[in-house]
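Saturday, quiet lab. Running sequence design on the structure tokens for the scaffold JK sent over.
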């Protein structure tokens, strides 16, 4: 039996349990990526680790072969907004930022989560775009509860990010998730409060704001996947998979520990402005 409100699936208790499981596995793989992040490591090595760790869990890396995507994880360096393809030619350097986006399939369900990591010593600009993405996701999550609207999510992200002088990518959105990798609804990272779909308990979707230092506009490279900022400025992203509960929300891809190489500037927003 499949319950739907409009076109958005409402998960049953068993489906919710399956989502919890796959999301916990994806979060664990992402946690374990952190120790690899250092100058000299190629994104191919990150791919190899994610591929093997996923299989070791009895899960499948969802990106591999998805609409022809050639690798098991997306690795998006610096001006890459999303969908970066791991390669032995892409080697991390001191001062880089890199988003690693992990999606597992386990018992037929998808769990999707990403984070931006700092490679060695980074610039204030790299910190700004990364911490803005992290904070805007946290603020968006605080909006998620029954009766809230999708527009409340986009507004929370847009208000914060634009308020600190960054821009919000509109070309890619968060998404419903479950047996399908990308399902209804589309979760825009910009919006107007009080507008859009009303959230209901049992909905599962991602929020994954891509925040740019310069223009919000993107361009796709010749490989037909890699999305980069049009002006070549930095971009950062964080992603969680969420469940709307009776009282608020559950962050299904929440991490049981601090994320090394990423959650390292807890005071970034202190004494600013
Ligand atoms: N994980 C990405 C997302 O957050 C999607 C990657 S699709 C791929 O939606 F084919 F590039 F892997
Ligand atoms: Co996603
Ligand atoms: Co993702």
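Result came back. Writing it out in full:
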């Amino acid at each position: 039996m499949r319950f739907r409100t409009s076109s958005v699936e409402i998960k049953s208790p068993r489906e919710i349990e399956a989502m919890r499981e796959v999301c916990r596995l994806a979060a664990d793989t992402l946690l374990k990526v952190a120790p690899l992040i250092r100058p000299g490591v190629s994104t191919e090595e990150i791919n190899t680790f994610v591929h093997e760790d996923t299989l070791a869990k009895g899960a499948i890396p969802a990106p591999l072969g998805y609409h022809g995507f050639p690798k098991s994880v997306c690795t998006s360096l610096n001006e890459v907004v999303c969908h970066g393809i791991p390669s032995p030619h892409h080697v991390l350097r001191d001062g880089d930022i890199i988003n690693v986006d992990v999606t597992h399939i386990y018992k037929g369900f998808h769990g999707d989560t990403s984070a931006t990591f700092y490679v060695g010593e980074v610039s204030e600009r790299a910190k700004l775009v990364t911490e803005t993405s992290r904070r805007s996701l946290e603020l968006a999550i605080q909006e998620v509860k029954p009766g809230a609207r999708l527009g409340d999510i986009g507004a929370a992200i847009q208000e914060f990010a634009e308020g600190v002088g960054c821009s919000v990518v509109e070309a890619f959105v968060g998404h419903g998730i479950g047996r399908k990798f990308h399902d209804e609804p589309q979760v825009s990272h910009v919006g107007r409060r009080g507008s859009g779909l009303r959230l209901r308990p049992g909905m599962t979707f991602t929020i994954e704001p891509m925040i740019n230092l310069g223009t919000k506009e993107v361009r796709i490279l010749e490989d037909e996947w890699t999305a980069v900022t049009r002006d070549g400025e930095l971009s950062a992203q964080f992603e969680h998979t969420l469940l709307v509960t009776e009282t608020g929300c559950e962050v299904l891809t929440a991490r049981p520990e601090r994320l090394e190489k990423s959650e390292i500037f807890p005071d970034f927003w202190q004494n600013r402005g």
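Notes for JK: The chain has a mean pLDDT of 97. DSSP finds four helices and 17 strands in the chain. Ask whether to fix the surface positions before the next round.
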